[in-house]
């Protein structure tokens, strides 16, 4: 009943006995026999029967071999299970069906590597490559010589370059495949007399007997190639003399009078030569005569103009040609001028003249004749004080200052507005607004000239104005005129000689809705010298 610790649990085939069963056990399992205790009376119930049971290993030297329950069909596996015999027992495994190329291992279908197991059928020269469930054969990678390629079986075979290449040979050649290469052979072509095969062998081309020297032209004759043949002609300037059977010179000047040369014709052997008269030179074409440019030798002191067959001397502007026809002399434009060349002063220079301006107040215009006023106010060269305003006039400038009288305030640089007045009567007589203006005119202004306009703004229906010049017109140079009921104008009515300054007051009385309102325009009028 004592079981050694080194024995393992095992399965035994039970032979019927009273209390215990002795089983055969293979030595490879635990090196002993199997001993099983049966806790029931088996003989009475199941006489002469065998059972499978569980037991423990026990040393018993009389058992010598395993009993195969799977062979004797004494196992208890189900119909969908497979009996696997083990030492002293058996195991029931569930049957699993694997596809082709797979094998069952530990209950799992695993791929069979036919390449490793060498169960493939690849031919020599092919290599096996395993795939899931199968394998395939591919050519072994090997380097073929030039002109060969590898076929599907891994063999090096010849490449047919004549079929593979689009243009293996040039035009006129046939491609012939060889082992590892190919050759090009010229196509055979038969041509007629006077023709030969083209370099590419594709067509027949004319033989140029003149170039190849196979013609039969005589001395002095010229060979001309023709399709399939040639022709012998005389050189240019010669003609064939059938009686003498030779080429003789042609006198072109006699045969074509006046047609070959523009002026003179001289016959030469086989040709002719043209010449020209004095004043002309032979053109590049050897036929026409071109005018000889005598001016190339500088026969004139200044300008030379070539004319047909001769030349003519000319002088530049500001010079005249002397009697010798070659020398030029300066013209004094300032002394000979009929009109006014310059606005201020004319200065003669060799071949021309220059205009000058006054030393102050003017600069020369871009046209070089007139003088342009210098705006001293804009250029900052005036001497006006900080309290004065610089006003530019023709050739000079003026420094002006504006102050507002009592009861007026300055609202801008040129305007004063009334702030208060002692009485209503004074309000009607005192200007509501005093405005300063500056006008500049030249002495050559056309008389009469409207120089100033005045009127209310805005204008309302019924407005009426009265204008006058209460101060500054003592000599009567200015006058006023009413253009309409609400617009007046100031005119310069007398010609003023020489520069002069005026300061006039122009008063406008506006009658609006029965009330007079006075406005005063204080005008600086500068009469300057006319523009230069």
Automatic annotation (TrEMBL):
GO molecular function (one): calcium ion binding
GO BP: any one term: epithelial cell differentiation
Family stated for the protein in its record: Belongs to the fibulin family.
Cleaved signal peptide residues: none
Classification via Pfam families: cEGF, EGF_CA, Fibulin_C
Keyword annotations from UniProtKB, A to Z: Calcium, Disulfide bond, EGF-like domain, Extracellular matrix, Glycoprotein, Membrane, Repeat, Secreted, Signal, Transmembrane, Transmembrane helix
Native species: Pygocentrus nattereri
Gene field: FBLN2
Record-given protein name: EGF-like domain-containing protein
SMART domains: EGF, EGF_CA
CDD domains referenced in this protein's UniProt entry, alphabetically: EGF_CA (cd00054)
Primary location recorded for the protein, binned into one broad class: secreted
Transmembrane segments: 19-42
Ranges for domain EGF-like: 206-244, 249-290, 291-329, 330-372
Localization in the cell: Secreted, Extracellular space, Extracellular matrix
GO cellular component terms, A-Z: cell periphery
């Amino acid at each position: 009943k004592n079981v050694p610790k080194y024995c393992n649990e095992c399965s035994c085939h039970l032979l019927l006995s009273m209390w215990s069963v002795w089983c055969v056990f293979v030595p490879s399992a635990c090196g002993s026999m199997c001993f099983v205790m049966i806790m029931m009376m088996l003989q009475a119930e199941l006489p002469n029967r065998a059972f499978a049971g569980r037991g423990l290993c026990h040393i018993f030297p009389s058992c010598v071999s395993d009993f195969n329950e799977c062979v004797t069909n004494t196992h208890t596996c189900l119909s969908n299970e497979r009996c696997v015999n083990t030492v002293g027992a058996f195991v029931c495994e569930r049957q699993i069906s694997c596809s082709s190329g797979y094998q069952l291992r530990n209950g799992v279908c695993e791929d069979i590597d036919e390449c490793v197991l060498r169960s493939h059928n690849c031919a020599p020269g092919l290599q096996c490559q395993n795939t899931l469930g199968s394998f395939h054969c591919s050519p072994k990678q090997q380097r073929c010589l030039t002109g060969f390629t590898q076929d599907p079986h891994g063999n090096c075979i010849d490449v047919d370059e004549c079929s593979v290449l689009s243009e293996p040979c040039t035009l006129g050649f046939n491609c012939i495949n060889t082992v590892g290469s190919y050759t090009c052979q010229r196509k055979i072509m038969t041509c007629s007399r006077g023709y030969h095969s083209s370099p590419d062998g594709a067509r027949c081309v004319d033989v140029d007997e003149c170039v190849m020297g196979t013609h039969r032209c005589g001395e002095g004759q010229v060979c001309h190639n023709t399709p399939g043949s040639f022709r012998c002609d005389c050189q240019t300037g010669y003609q064939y003399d059938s009686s003498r059977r030779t080429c003789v010179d042609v006198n072109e000047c006699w045969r074509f009078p006046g047609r070959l040369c523009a002026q003179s014709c001289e016959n030469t052997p086989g040709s002719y030569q043209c010449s020209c008269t004095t004043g002309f030179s032979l053109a590049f074409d050897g036929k026409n005569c071109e005018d000889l440019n005598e001016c190339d030798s500088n026969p004139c002191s200044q300008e030379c103009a070539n004319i047909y067959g001769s030349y003519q001397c000319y002088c530049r502007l500001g010079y005249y040609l002397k009697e010798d026809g070659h020398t030029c002399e300066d013209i004094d434009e300032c002394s000979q001028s009929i009109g006014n060349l310059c606005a201020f002063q004319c200065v003669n220079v060799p071949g021309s003249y220059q205009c000058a301006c006054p030393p102050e107040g003017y600069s020369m215009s871009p046209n070089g004749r007139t003088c342009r006023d210098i705006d001293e106010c804009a250029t900052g060269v005036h001497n006006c004080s900080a309290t004065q305003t610089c006003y530019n006039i023709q050739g000079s400038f003026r420094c002006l200052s504006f102050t507002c009288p009592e009861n007026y305030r300055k609202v801008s640089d040129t305007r004063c507005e009334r702030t208060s007045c002692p009485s209503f009567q004074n309000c009607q007589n005192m200007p509501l607004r005093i405005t300063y203006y500056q006008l500049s005119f030249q002495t050559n202004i056309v008389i009469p000239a409207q120089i100033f306009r005045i009127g209310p703004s805005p204008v309302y229906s019924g407005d009426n104005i009265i204008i006058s010049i209460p101060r500054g017109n003592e000599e009567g140079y200015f006058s006023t005129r009413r253009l309409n009921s609400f617009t007046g104008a100031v005119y310069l009515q007398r010609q003023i000689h020489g520069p002069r300054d005026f300061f006039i007051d122009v008063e406008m009385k506006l009658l609006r809705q029965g009330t007079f309102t006075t406005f005063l325009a204080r005008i600086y009028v500068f009469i300057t010298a006319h523009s230069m």
